[in-house]
Amino acid sequence: MASIINQLGLNTRVPYHFLLYSLSFGGTAFYSYIVSPILFKKLSRDDFSKVQGLVFPHYFKFQILSPLVIAAITPFQYCPFTLGTLAIASLSGLVNLFYLEPKCRGIKEERIKLTAIGKEKKDNGEPTDEMQALTASFGRWHGLSMLINNLSVLSLTVYGLTVAKGLTLLKY
Question: What is d(CA 37, CA 43) in angstroms, rounded to the nearest whole number?
């Protein structure tokens, strides 16, 4: 097997670095901008919430680990800027996994409790003040989570463009 890898020229870290970068950027962007909006439109709110609740812990862990592995297996010499972009991508996943996702989950659970005891709506059908406050709070925290996720995608984009620019400067 090793001789086949050597014959194919895969004895460097370059292909693995680019494959992992492609998977990291592509997976993050695809799930964020294509899969999630489709699920949101096609599933009920409860089903969408259940799916996201199952996916997000894995998604954020991947968002944390993949930039670290990319940095560890790079065949290039990095400048602080490119390492910074990978650090931002990884930190974004950390913030989402350990702070924002639990915050949003807690608010959703409070809304579910209100609904279970019948205190989500007033007699006239309008949401109660408590439900409105929880909904507004969820919107703020979820919006911040989406912003942090976009920061991760943007930082991976900048990293990829920077590496690509560096490659174009190489003399063949």
Answer: 10
Measured in degrees and rounded to the nearest 5, phi and psi for residue 120 equal -85, -20
Length of the chain: 172
CA angle 35, 32, 110 (to 5 degrees): 95
Angle, vertex CA 110, rays to CA 61 and CA 127, nearest 5: 125
| pLDDT at position 5 | 45
- Which amino acid does the sequence have at 108? K
Alpha-carbon distance values, 49 to 103, 111, 131 (Å): 14, 13, 17
| Contact yes or no for 30/161 (Cβ under 8 A) | no
Q: Which two tokens stand for residue 171?
A: 């003399």
Mean pLDDT in order along the chain per 10 residues (172 residues):
49 85 97 98 95 96 97 82 94 98 96 91 91 96 98 96 80 55
Radius of gyration of the chain (CA): 21
* Partner residues linked to 121 by β-bridges: 127
User: Can you tell me the distance from the alpha carbon of 87 to that of 48, in angstroms, rounded to the nearest whole number?
Assistant: 30
Distances (CA, A) of 28 to 77, 86, 151: 25, 14, 11
d(CA 13, CA 66): 15
